[in-house]
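Lab notes, practical 5.
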Amino acid sequence: MATPEQKQKSPTEAPMIEAVGLSKFYGIFAAARDVSFTVNEGELVAFLGPNGAGKSTTMKMLTGYLSPSQGTARIAGCNMQDDRLAGSEKLGYLPESGPLYPDMTPSSMLNFFAEARGMRGGHRKARIEAVVDICSLHSVFHKPISKLSKGYKQRVGLAQSLLHEPDVLILDEPTSGLDPNQIRDVRSTLLKLSETKTILLSTHILQEVEAMANRVIVINEGRKVYDGDVKDLDQGRGLTEAFHDLTASEA
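Output from the prediction step:
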């Protein structure tokens, strides 16, 4: 559970994640339609929606992984279509079930990504040591990734996303499939990271929203249907009922 000090941290007015009229069409099907929101520096914002609502599509457009059919995505002021490399330097992205190399160890994989990012010598060593500490990977650092639990695989993916010291994190279902103890570990890590980074967090676990975020964005059928304070969404009904009211399809 977030401490009062953590949840009351005041963000700045500097926009770090900007979705401006983002739409993605596949033929006549709209995976996302006219989605707009801004996440300012220092915010940890939960991004909610039922399966198929357009969360992952929106996140992929924000990261530059997908080109929008319409609209603009910016990370730290960088247009992710026109200046993706500059934006990627500011961004750490953890997709749902992020791709890992099962025959590698965390050590070899982090060294591989560090080399791909141009890190050399002492700087590379220091950054790998830092993310291993943040993600508590010491006990599995030299074990094959294929032999790791789902929780440790998620930690390896998170460590890779943190390697280049990004200012912004976009995390798609980072606690999916984890047991309660693993979820608690990831939550603790994210709360610590939120002290210095701007985070957009997709999750299906409403308890995570209450534990970590002050603000929530809800998307349904490709459209944004709520953007505001967690307490205003709850209104005494509980987040489960509020989420149902916003997203349930009519019978």
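Observations recorded by the TA: Residues 121-135 form the longest helix (15 residues). The chain has two domains: 4-90+167-247, 99-165.
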